[in-house]
Structures are given as structure tokens and as C-alpha cells.
UniProtKB/TrEMBL annotation:
PANTHER family the UniProt entry points to: CNH DOMAIN CONTAINING, TRANSFORMING GROWTH FACTOR-BETA RECEPTOR-ASSOCIATED PROTEIN 1
Placement of CHCR repeats on the sequence: 1-85
Coiled coil (residue ranges): none
Record protein name field: Vacuolar sorting protein 39/Transforming growth factor beta receptor-associated domain-containing protein
GO CC term, one of those recorded: membrane
GO BP, sorted A to Z: autophagy; endosomal vesicle fusion; intracellular protein transport
InterPro entries in the cross-refs: Clathrin_H-chain/VPS_repeat (IPR000547), Vam6/VPS39/TRAP1 (IPR032914)
PROSITE patterns in UniProt: CHCR
Amino acid sequence: MLQMSNLYRVQLILGKAKEKDMHAECAILYGKLEEHDKALRILVHKLKDYGAAENYCQLNSQGKEPGYRKRLYHVLLSVYLDPSYE
């Protein structure tokens, strides 16, 4: 529902989701804000849901230019390879 709807204020809901440690929801909301690095870090490092991270890239690049999809997957690769994550 969060993914498809535009009938809410993303920043407000994100603040509430962060307070409640709702990580999957935060990832969706960061995606809405196009903060893909933050979203993918949550999926990969907090949730350890690698399939969801790949699906995230697929869903968030639908209907966009091919270069956009490449950039998203590049961000995902960078997240995988980042040894400095807390």
C-alpha cells in the first residue's frame, strides 16, 4: 500500500515508522523520496533480505530510462561491498 499510494505525506509517515523500527516500511518510504542508498542499506544490512533489495531495484526502475535501472543496481552493488556499515 505504501509503495503504490501517493495519498500521504512521506516525511511524516517516515518519522513515525523510524520511531517504531519498522524497517521494511522505512525502505519503501525512502524509495518514495528517491533516497535509494538508505532504502537499500536497510534491506541489505538490517533486514538481510537480498531478494527484496533486487526487487526494490526492479520496481523502482519500472517505466524509467535504462540508465536509471543501471544506476540503481550500481547503488545496490555499492551497498553490498561497503564494509563500513554499522
